[in-house]
Specification:
Length: 987
């Protein structure tokens, strides 16, 4: 009790220290606030550039900032914020609509490939809460795209200005908050593809899989209403919005690139249709030497044939989930006096989506009774007699046999998770002038994200075991579960997976069970800052016309996590037990920022200025005190050219999800080896030696008999770690901005960046742990390998997994050059033409997985998991829109060229068909027009030529690769053409 009171008292004192003095002084001065720009109207052209809290007379920041306006959102038909951001070369594709299988239901942004948890997302300079209780990065679904005025993307880091999570940079959504009138905006969209890919069609035909034809699907509707009103002669404004979005599903079976789970044949020179060893009909394994399946035609046992007998799990998996979203909110501000303006932002979202993957099944060891009445002579002989078990033994226990039973639950349908997010965010405060030199802004924010995950068509593993022990009930003369006969579980119904059409609805009702996981994340922020124009006190350099600008601020932030699971989930009925958890972090921060003009309006020095920022943070209950700082310089010898540079030291304290998440199992994809297996110790001829495999837990008796997973998917144990330490990073940027007077309308910027992150919070890659244990026998790595004691496998049952819980790992560094240019031509009576060019040349993306390990280079590479290189990281990307606007301004058309460079598979001996993902070029076309002052329209097609996404066997979507359906949908246009038509009606 004392601790809770003490904690609350500290919060109250901190909040009072920040708010009371600032607010009490709020009536001291008089200057109007222009909220349309979110900065003070000082009578000059001042704006706030993302990455600084200081108003500036020019838009040049010492860190690179890219702004995308509302016009580009309309031109792309964007209804999802992540789809727009993923087209930018600085963004490494992350969670989004395309990662339908493994995704969390949220959409995120990842700058520079450093991970979305290192990109801070803001709305009007205020941070968004965590996306969900299971995934920390902010959810872009919360953003009402119809009210976005522009999106600022700062890629130089801004931790000293905004606090934790801004290691890679900041994405700041600037919202329209001064709307007046009534507006209805609606858009219809869909995907269309011819599914024209001859070589993949041949593969599907070869393995007797359906070939999808031309498709028109994935329809979506997005409708919004915006209402705004000014009050009291312009002293205030209230802008409200309501948005509804509905998305129809697209299955992998609807696209030729994803209609089967691609494998390898012909020595890796060609694709095959592979799949899972959990099949339909039933597949039985006893080590590597006994591998049989029930023949679908005869019902008898025969040898299992790879890959023909594997189960193609792809067609029922989603490429796009069906979903429905409601969002509403308001942005309001009112000038109470000339010195005090009150403001409030309210945002609410309810988003529901259903994820579907292939049916569940029996994936591991099961005990069968050889006097099972469903066995025919072939099963009784093959599963029992030939393996030394007498079906007629006098003792019932002697009639039991144990082996791996792999049976796909095709009768029950796909596994589904209906995921709901409800997010609420309220931000409010007061801002204004203390006097002519000083302004202030004090605020408080509360946000809560609630999460529920209702699963269906999953097996209760305990009941599966009960339903497989079947004998004749003496009371009825009919087959019945042994546990029903002896009264242990009277509800048990036999699961007959040994005969055609043997599975009944009653059996499914018994062995299938729903699951439920719920949770919340809460965020409380109290803060404030004052901004001073010290030139009013004469504090300025002799050669400068402007004085020193200064920011002083303080902030308190608390973020808490709660996860609760149903009884079956907690006890491990669906696999690994998942515990309920609660945890929180608190941070108290003081910060300052300064802008110091040194020389202005002088020969060869139109402007020379330096900037600096410093933040002190105290995570008093977790990682302690931290110091972050930044220093920059801007030099313009003449108005046409400006050089800029900045250095930043940043830290990132682990978030509650990284600290406190419960352990659970996840899939890990291992690469295929030269012997055709993915586990180096599996098969009759293992790729690794006996001594090496013994280090990983294989016994001499198991060697040569360890089962391999045909789907190359293994178990990985993931979860949080309360002992995590702080990440540290150093960022350096240097650039040139040119607006040459000899080329009116031309702006060019070139920026070099270099970012290094140490003590990277991540996990030990499963493949690295396995290989290091094999090669060195290091106790740390070998301790992460947990093979099933019965047969040494890594994918069957609860006792087989590679541990991959969160730890401070090695380091990650990246460097490259960004180039941005725009040129506007005015043709007078023929209108105007604007050309934009935004490109990234990636020099290096180097990862050191653990201290002391060798670094590996990811620039120009991709791999099966994010622990390797993950999503393709091409050396070069660009985005190039060309827009023509009619002289009247009532009509425009835009043609956009998107280029994504090639990427090689990071592997010693990659299969030829997987070795390289070729470069891809997309052309988008959009047309916009105006009927009259009240009605605007737009129509467009993205990926006009229906370019097929490159495919690989190393993009299955497991292990955190953001892959899905044999490709990377967040990178490539995996669905074909995107068509949209929309209209805006203003009243």
């Amino acid at each position: 009790m004392f601790d809770n009171r003490h904690r609350s008292y500290r919060k109250f004192l901190w909040a009072s220290t920040v708010i009371v003095p600032l607010f009490a002084a709020g009536s001291a001065g008089a200057q109007e606030v222009d909220d349309s720009e979110g900065v003070l109207d000082t009578g000059q052209d001042t704006i706030v550039v993302t990455g600084s809290r200081l108003p500036s007379q020019n838009m040049i920041a010492t860190s690179p900032v890219t702004s995308v306006g509302a016009g580009e959102i309309d031109a792309r038909g964007t209804i999802r914020a992540e789809d727009l951001l993923n087209t930018l070369p600085q963004v490494s594709p992350s969670e989004g609509s395309g990662r339908a299988n493994e995704g969390t239901g949220t959409a995120t942004v990842d700058l520079r490939g450093l991970g979305p948890e290192r990109t801070l997302v803001l709305v009007n300079d205020r941070r968004l809460p965590y996306g969900s209780p299971i995934y920390a990065p902010a959810d872009l679904n919360q953003i009402p795209t119809q009210l976005v005025e522009r999106v600022d993307v700062l890629t130089g880091g801004a931790t000293a200005v905004y606090g934790a999570d801004a290691v890679a940079g900041v994405v700041n959504f600037i919202m329209v908050d001064d709307f007046e009138g009534f507006e209805i905006n609606t858009q219809l969209s869909a995907y269309q593809t011819g599914n024209n890919e001859g070589s993949l069609e041949d593969v599907l035909n070869q393995f007797d899989q359906p070939v999808p034809g031309s498709k028109f699907d994935g329809e979506a509707i997005d409708a919004s209403v915006v209402f705004g009103v000014n009050a009291d002669n312009g002293r205030g404004n209230v802008t409200t919005y309501f948005n509804y979005r509905k998305q129809e599903e697209i299955l992998q079976g609807d696209r030729i690139t994803s209609a089967c789970a691609l494998g390898l044949q012909d020595g890796g020179n060609a694709f095959s249709c592979g799949g899972s060893g959990t099949t339909f009909p039933t597949h039985f394994i006893d080590g590597e030497t006994y591998n049989v399946i029930i023949d679908e035609q005869t019902g008898n046992l025969r040898p299992f044939e790879f890959p023909q007998d594997t189960y193609n799990y792809a067609p029922l998996n989603h490429l796009i989930r069906p979903g429905e979203r409601f969002a509403l909110g308001a942005f309001a501000h009112y000038e109470i006096t000339d010195e005090i303006e009150a403001y409030v932002d309210l945002m609410f979202m309810d988003d529901t989506t259903t994820a579907q993957i292939a049916p569940t099944g029996s994936f591991g060891q099961q005990t069968l009774n050889c006097d099972n009445p469903f066995f025919n002579d072939s099963l009784r002989q093959g599963l029992c007699v030939n393996r030394g078990v007498d079906p007629d033994a006098e003792n019932p226990e002697d009639r039991l046999t144990t082996l791996v039973v792999q049976r796909r639950n095709v009768e029950g349908g796909g596994r589904q998770n209906t995921i709901n997010h409800q997010s609420f965010r309220a931000n409010g405060g007061f801002r204004g002038q203390l006097d002519e030199a000083w302004s202030y802004d004090v605020f408080g924010q509360y946000a809560q994200v609630s999460y529920s995950d209702n699963s269906s068509n999953f097996f209760n593993n305990d009941r599966v075991g009960n339903a497989l022990i079947v004998r004749i009930d003496p009371a009825t003369g009919e087959p019945a579960c042994q546990v029903a006969i002896d009264g242990t579980d009277p509800e048990c119904v036999p699961w007959n997976i040994f005969q055609a059409d043997g599975v009944t609805d009653a059996a499914l009702d018994y062995i299938q069970a729903p699951g439920l996981r719920v949770g919340t994340v809460e965020q409380i922020i109290v803060g404030g800052f004052v901004t001073g124009e010290l030139g009013d006190y004469g504090i300025k350099f002799p050669g400068a016309t402007d004085g020193v600008g200064l920011v002083l601020g303080a902030e308190y932030r608390e973020e808490s996590l709660s996860q609760t699971n149903d009884f079956l989930t907690r006890t491990g009925a669906f696999g690994t037990p998942r515990a309920d958890v609660e945890g929180s972090i608190e941070v108290y921060e003081l910060y300052t920022e300064a802008q110091v003009p040194i020389v202005q309006d002088a020969p060869y020095a139109d402007e020379l200025a330096i900037t600096g920022a410093y933040r002190f943070s105290d995570y008093y209950e977790t990682t302690g005190t931290q110091h972050t700082y930044a220093a920059g310089i801007s030099y313009a010898p003449v108005p046409d050219y400006r050089f800029r540079a900045q250095y930043q030291r940043a830290t990132r304290s682990p978030n509650p999800i990284e600290l406190f998440s419960p352990n659970s199992r996840f899939e890990l994809t291992l690469p295929v080896l030269t012997n055709g297996n993915s586990d180096p110790c599996a098969g009759t001829d293992p790729a690794a030696s006996l001594d090496a495999c013994i280090r990983t837990g294989v016994t001499p008796e198991q060697y040569g008999n360890v089962p391999n997973n045909p789907a190359n998917q293994y178990n990985r144990l993931i979860g949080g770690n309360p002992d995590l330490e702080v990440e540290t990073s150093d960022t350096f940027t240097v650039g040139l901005i040119a607006t040459p007077s000899f080329a009116d309308g031309l702006t060019v910027s070139i920026d070099y960046y270099n970012i290094d992150v140490d003590d990277f919070i991540s996990t030990v890659p499963g493949e690295l742990a396995l290989n290091n244990c094999l090669e060195t026998g290091d106790e740390f790595f070998c301790g992460l390998i947990n093979r099933d004691p019965a047969d040494g496998n890594l994918f069957l049952g609860d006792n087989s997994f590679i541990t991959g819980t969160t730890v401070n790992t090695g380091s990650l560094s990246t460097s490259g050059v960004d180039v941005a240019a725009d040129y506007t031509f005015d043709f007078g009576s023929s209108g105007s033409l604007r050309i934009d060019y935004l490109a990234t040349f990636l020099s290096s993306l180097e990862k050191v997985p653990l201290p002391g390990e060798d670094a590996f280079e990811c620039a120009g590479y991709y791999s099966a998991t994010n622990a390797g290189c993950g999503t393709p990281n091409p050396d070069y990307r660009h985005w190039l829109p060309v827009r023509w606007i009619a002289p009247s301004g009532d009509f425009s058309t835009q043609l956009t060229w998107r280029h994504f460079g090639s990427a090689d598979l990071l592997a010693d001996n990659p299969a030829p068909v997987d070795a390289t993902l070729d470069a891809v070029n997309y052309i988008d076309l959009a047309v916009q027009g105006r009927v009259n002052d009240a009605v605007d329209w737009r129509v467009g097609v993205n990926n006009v030529f229906d370019v097929t996404a490159p495919v690989t066997t190393s993009a299955g979507g497991s292990g955190g690769s953001f892959g899905n359906g044999n490709t990377f949908p967040s990178v490539y246009d995996a669905l074909g053409r995107f068509l949209f038509v929309g209209a805006t009606i203003k009243m």
